[in-house]
Amino acid sequence: MFRTQAFMFFFLLELKLPKAKGNCNFIEPQSHCVCSLLESTGMKNFIQCLPAATYELREGNLEEFAGFAGIKPDERIVEILKALQVRKLIFTDLFVPENILPSAMEFVSYAPLVSELEFVNCTFLRTSQWPPTGRLNMQVSSLRFHKVTAAPLDDRLDMAQLKRWLKILQNLTVTESQVTSIPCKIGKMFTALHFLDVSGNHFHDRSMESSFCEGVFPQLQVLKLHHNNLTSYETVCKTIGHLKMLTHLDLSQNGFLPRDFSSSCMWPHSLHVFNLSNTGLEHIDRSLPPNIEILDLSANNIFTLDLSLPGLKELYLSNNSLQTVPSLSRLPHLEVLNLDQNQISELPSKGLKHLHSLKAGHNLYNCSCSHHIREIQDLAAKPSLLPDWPQDYICKSPPHYQDFLVKDVPLSSLLCNKALVSHGSIVNLLISLYLIFCWLPVPPFSDTSFHQL
Ligand SMILES: *[C@@H]1O[C@H](CO)[C@@H](O)[C@H](O)[C@H]1NC(C)=O
Ligand SMILES: *[C@@H]1O[C@H](CO)[C@@H](O)[C@H](O)[C@H]1NC(C)=O
Ligand SMILES: *[C@@H]1O[C@H](CO)[C@@H](O)[C@H](O)[C@H]1NC(C)=O
Ligand SMILES: *[C@@H]1O[C@H](CO)[C@@H](O)[C@H](O)[C@H]1NC(C)=O
Ligand SMILES: *[C@@H]1O[C@H](CO)[C@@H](O)[C@H](O)[C@H]1NC(C)=O
Ligand SMILES: *[C@@H]1O[C@H](CO)[C@@H](O)[C@H](O)[C@H]1NC(C)=O
After folding, report:
1. Closest C-alpha among 362, 354, 367, 288 to residue 320
2. Per-residue model confidence (pLDDT) at position 104
């Protein structure tokens, strides 16, 4: 009980926040406390929130907390902060005056368990000068901004003050916030960063060069640049080539222009996951990272493909323009293949049966020939190979089976025979002979084989 009272005391009196109002809700299963500033009934229900590991403050204008800016935590407050169980702080739908941030960070420095900070749909209100911070020893290792707006950082923020903290930060997310670049000087301060997500911003080819200058993010493993304004595949390759720890690169939803033939470039050899989904590619005539295990090429306009990637395990080709199954002979370790939403008319079971998972629904299956249907059914018979079977396997031709499920087409070899005979090649003749022999009531060679036994 001491802690409860102490905490309330700290929160309502010590911070001199007479205008603090709001209503809190404790969501027990997630140990998440949400306090809204909109309701003007005082800090109602705050006590039930005391065991929460995540605190979220929503909806309002923190200018009314401006008094906070000058407050320094004294010994008693430090004791309370040290006892807190909070791990994550979230600020949602708020106006945040910049000048309260340094004090807020100083308070957070004393709460040893707070490792994640998140700002969602917040507007940072520019103030002329950031007050100097004192001791800044935050243990926050994960920082996320989503849909935030702020004035560009210029001289009013002395980044050197933050250096000690930026050095330990591991995860940084700044999504859908109209960011165009990261100053080279600042990128170099993130010496421990593992994970950087800047998706949904306005990074473009030129700003890539400055943002990923030599020496930034030396520990970076995951980089997400999905949905930006990148147009040159080669520029991305050149600018991130020095990130020697990078294992995962997401470039999906950028519009790459047809190849500029200027130069070839080496991707980091550490890259294992590469996402080129929805980037306007028509063919892959560009260099790919040599050691990739997962390659996503879905939602492009690829109509032929011939890859040679010895380590590749998963290949995603959904929603392209493929008319035939690409050759897998130089992908010896492939386990997962998605070919759904293409224009493929046949699935040759031989080359595909060794896969662990194959998605090939929503194609234009040719159901004229029982041989082709048998091949698909053969694949479907292997447990869990075709997760989208049977509902997504639909005949496109011939007209009288259009929109039939492949599984429902009656298996009549006559159909196949007719088509074959009309072509009249030697191969077709041989296949017809084979079919005739197979249909004989007694296999013609069985007698001899029995005698030999
Ligand atoms: C974002 O926050 C503002 C108030 O700061 C609010 O009016 C708006 O509805 C919020 N937008 C979304 C998408 O939640
Ligand atoms: C960083 O993000 C990754 C991926 O979202 C997550 O698995 C990891 O736990 C995070 N690390 C920290 C320190 O928050
Ligand atoms: C990014 O691309 C979008 C859409 O193509 C465009 O509206 C926007 O102006 C571009 N932004 C920048 C910074 O280039
Ligand atoms: C690639 O990015 C898209 C979003 O653009 C996402 O839906 C997809 O899951 C990603 N692929 C992989 C393999 O992570
Ligand atoms: C298929 O890819 C196109 C881009 O090539 C994209 O616009 C469309 O949304 C994708 N369709 C589906 C169903 O994913
Ligand atoms: C379907 O396969 C048959 C037999 O191989 C062939 O004659 C026919 O042209 C094919 N139909 C289409 C639409 O490809």
Report:
1. 362
2. 81
Q: Shortest CA distance to 293 belongs to which of 316, 314, 268, 269?
A: 314
Q: Which of 368, 372, 414 for a ligand 6 pocket mutation test, highest count of atoms within 8 Å of Cβ?
A: 368
Q: What is the pLDDT of residue 126?
A: 82
Cβ of 298 closer than 6 Å to ligand 5, yes or no, is no
Residues having CB closer than 6 A to ligand 1 are: 93, 95, 121
Q: What is the pLDDT of residue 1?
A: 32
Q: What is the pTM of this model?
A: 0.85
Domain boundaries, position 18: 1-152+161-166
Question: Atom 13 of ligand 6 has which residue's CA nearest to it?
Answer: 397
The CATH number of the domain holding residue 87 is: 3.80.10.10
For the chain, the average pLDDT equals 81
Is 13 inside any structural domain? yes
Does 130 sit in the ligand 2 pocket, CB within 6 Å?
Answer: no
The rounded Å distance from CA 127 to ligand 1 centre is 21
- Which ligand number lies closest to the CA of residue 344? 6
Q: What is the pLDDT of residues 386-400, one digit of tens each?
A: 999 999 999 998 888
Q: CA Rg, the chain, in Å?
A: 31
Name the residue with the closest Cα to ligand 1, atom 9: 93
Please determine, for residue 132, whether its predicted confidence score (pLDDT) is greater than 50.
Answer: yes
Band (pLDDT 50/70/90 cuts) for residue 160 is confident
Asked whether the predicted pLDDT for residue 293 surpasses 60, the reply is yes
Residue 136 has pLDDT above 80, yes or no: no
**Closest atom of ligand 2 relative to the 142 alpha carbon:** 14
pLDDT of residue 156: 62
Residue 195 lies in a domain: no
Q: Is the CB of 199 under 6 A from ligand 4?
A: no
pLDDT of residue 244: 94
Per the domain annotation, does 418 fall within a domain? no
When pLDDT is cut at 50, 70 and 90, the band that residue 412 belongs to is: low
Any ligand 6 atom below 6 A from CB of 92: no
Is residue 99 one of the residues assigned to a domain?
A: yes
The distance between the two most distant Cα atoms of the chain, rounded to a whole number of Å, is 104
Tell me if 195 CB under 6 Å of ligand 2.
Answer: yes
Atom of ligand 2 nearest to the CA of 116: 14
Question: Is there a contact between 61 and 91 (Cβ–Cβ < 8 Å)?
Answer: no
**Using CA atoms, how far apart are residues 265 and 287, in angstroms rounded to an integer?**
7
The pLDDT of residue 13 is above 60: no
CB 74 within 8 A of CB 40: no
Q: Is-contact 98 123, C-beta < 8 A?
A: no
Q: Tell which residue, 311, 238, 317, 246, has the closest CA to residue 277.
A: 317
Q: How many domains does the chain contain in total?
A: 1
